[in-house]
Amino acid sequence: MKLNSIVAAAATTAVTAWAADSSSSRVERTYSTISPMASEIASAASNATTNHFTSNVTGAAFDRIVIVWLENTDYDKAAGQEDLKWLAQQGIVLDNYWGLTHPSEPNYIASVGGDYFALDDDRFIALPSNISTIVDLFDTKEISWSEYQEHLPHTGFQGFNYSNQDNFANDYVRKHNPLVMYDSVAQNETRLANIKNFTMFEQDLNDRTLPQYSFITPNMTNDGHDTNIRIAGKWSRDFLEPLLSNEYFMENTLVVLTFDENETYSIKNKVFTILLGGAVPDELKNTTDSTYYDHYSLISSPVANWDLPSLGRHDVDANVFELVANVTNITNKDVDTTYKLNNATYVGYLLDDQIALPAPNVTAINRNGRGVLQQVVDQWGDEYSAQMSASYFTSTTTTVSASVGDAATMTLAGNSSTLATSSATQGSNSTTHPFTSTGAGAVINALSLSSLIGMLAVFI
Ligand SMILES: *[C@@H]1O[C@H](CO)[C@@H](O)[C@H](O)[C@H]1NC(C)=O
Ligand SMILES: *[C@@H]1O[C@H](CO)[C@@H](O)[C@H](O)[C@H]1NC(C)=O
Ligand SMILES: *[C@@H]1O[C@H](CO)[C@@H](O)[C@H](O)[C@H]1NC(C)=O
Ligand SMILES: *[C@@H]1O[C@H](CO)[C@@H](O)[C@H](O)[C@H]1NC(C)=O
Ligand SMILES: *[C@@H]1O[C@H](CO)[C@@H](O)[C@H](O)[C@H]1NC(C)=O
Ligand SMILES: *[C@@H]1O[C@H](CO)[C@@H](O)[C@H](O)[C@H]1NC(C)=O
Ligand SMILES: *[C@@H]1O[C@H](CO)[C@@H](O)[C@H](O)[C@H]1NC(C)=O
Ligand SMILES: *[C@@H]1O[C@H](CO)[C@@H](O)[C@H](O)[C@H]1NC(C)=O
Ligand SMILES: *[C@@H]1O[C@H](CO)[C@@H](O)[C@H](O)[C@H]1NC(C)=O
Ligand SMILES: *[C@@H]1O[C@H](CO)[C@@H](O)[C@H](O)[C@H]1NC(C)=O
Ligand SMILES: *[C@@H]1O[C@H](CO)[C@@H](O)[C@H](O)[C@H]1NC(C)=O
Ligand SMILES: CC(=O)N[C@H]1CO[C@H](CO)[C@@H](O)[C@@H]1O
């Protein structure tokens, strides 16, 4: 069976399950864990299409951004590794850069879509195609982009993982491939053809067809996930050192080397991050920037650099790398991290089947003074108004503004239709979840049903 038909079959099953259960408000969402046979992968590989799009849209601080993610390492351990120490001296260390939650997958998802939708595990995720990503923002100026995923068996592969075929060790995993988890990318053949592997990176480098945005994920050995920081550090230096002396690669390029999350869940989720590349001025090499950043800064920084609109999610008010902020007159905000942990998810869409997908804030203005992408406004405007009038939003269920305080959070209690005001920790079913939320999830059965139907319609 072709992958698309497998996905469709899974969606059909979900619809049946919903229909059978339609008398009750409980809706089970079905998630596939598709892993095509090796023979199917080989046959798909033989005619996968690959794009080699490039472009040269001038940015305020850089013309190209290359984002590289390593895995699961506490800040001090990474900062002390000798190859990473060497790399740090070639660039700017960001010593106040944070992961958003645990485990891995929600962090990757958030870094391109502006939310992690309350995900708290690493399961197979395919977010409905009405959710936009950074790719939609790039399209407004035809800024080229690609992902480079090591050992992705072929361009556009959508399976759950791809093991080393000799020893069946973990190699490529979907949970570290942010854009393929959004159907707005995966169900668009043009976009899918930008989801490539390292063989294609070498080719694009040699052919001078690197895109202006790339997201690079080494395999499970090289990113430290199944190994340790010594391997991940050595891989990073082996990969980056030659690039740092490659004139074509370096030209006005910003490299961001970061980690998805801290390893120890009980401590603050700060991760070691370095900015490198030709866009870093000489006088700032071997320095430290202590501005608060997090994975949402991976959206807000390119957005400010190219003066793009926003997604209306957490990208809107994320701090922008100082390199960009300084030349765009953006003032970053101070973030008090005294009580910040970023080590648990909140009660929301992917954690509780009864909670609707939050609409982005279609009225938000981002750090570079732009509104929300028109297509997002068109797609979500009505839903945003509906959720606003039902007091759906909390400080965590959506994007936007710090002005929505936890105390003002409104929750529809259980199946009753009366609005009840509740405090942040009194989410109606918070005790059924192992994680205490940092803000209450608003539970609105009617909204969640209509939005789920919309989501399934999109699948089919
Ligand atoms: C390869 O491409 C052909 C022609 O587009 C198509 O009919 C066939 O299904 C494709 N094979 C696979 C394995 O996707
Ligand atoms: C991109 O454009 C800038 C400004 O015109 C130019 O300096 C630079 O060489 C171009 N880079 C590439 C890779 O074409
Ligand atoms: C970086 O700074 C440290 C101490 O501030 C110094 O010992 C080291 O030589 C510097 N490295 C480079 C490459 O400039
Ligand atoms: C990388 O992708 C290309 C294009 O789909 C494919 O031909 C190649 O076999 C892949 N390389 C690896 C190492 O999997
Ligand atoms: C990961 O990639 C490296 C080469 O970059 C390779 O030596 C290693 O075997 C790969 N890991 C697995 C599990 O295949
Ligand atoms: C598919 O992707 C292309 C390139 O990003 C874009 O121009 C087009 O609008 C997308 N199509 C849909 C239906 O989203
Ligand atoms: C987050 O950290 C706090 C403080 O160390 C700890 O009590 C809590 O259990 C952690 N949460 C998770 C989900 O690990
Ligand atoms: C930004 O501007 C401040 C104040 O002028 C300066 O201290 C800092 O080094 C600049 N940072 C960057 C990355 O240009
Ligand atoms: C930033 O502010 C300076 C001084 O007010 C001004 O000259 C410059 O044009 C501004 N730059 C941008 C990108 O707005
Ligand atoms: C949406 O953004 C606007 C403008 O920043 C703000 O006033 C409003 O409170 C935000 N809405 C929500 C639900 O946070
Ligand atoms: C809360 O959990 C109870 C028991 O599982 C269930 O009956 C009820 O529908 C749930 N309420 C909400 C709002 O999820
Ligand atoms: C904020 C922060 O750095 N959190 C922790 C990450 O892990 C190291 C342990 O290696 C701790 O020292 C940090 O406090």
UniProtKB/TrEMBL annotation:
Gene Ontology process terms (BP): phospholipid catabolic process
Keyword Signal included in the entry's annotation: yes
Pfam families noted in UniProt: Phosphoesterase (PF04185)
Entry GO MF terms: acid phosphatase activity
Record's catalysed reaction(s): a phosphate monoester + H2O = an alcohol + phosphate
InterPro entries listed in its UniProt record: Alkaline_phosphatase_core_sf, Phosphoesterase
Sorted UniProt keywords: Hydrolase, Signal
Signal peptide extent: 1-19
Record EC number: 3.1.3.2
Superkingdom per UniProt: Eukaryota
Protein name: acid phosphatase
Source species taxonomy: Eukaryota, Fungi, Dikarya, Ascomycota, Saccharomycotina
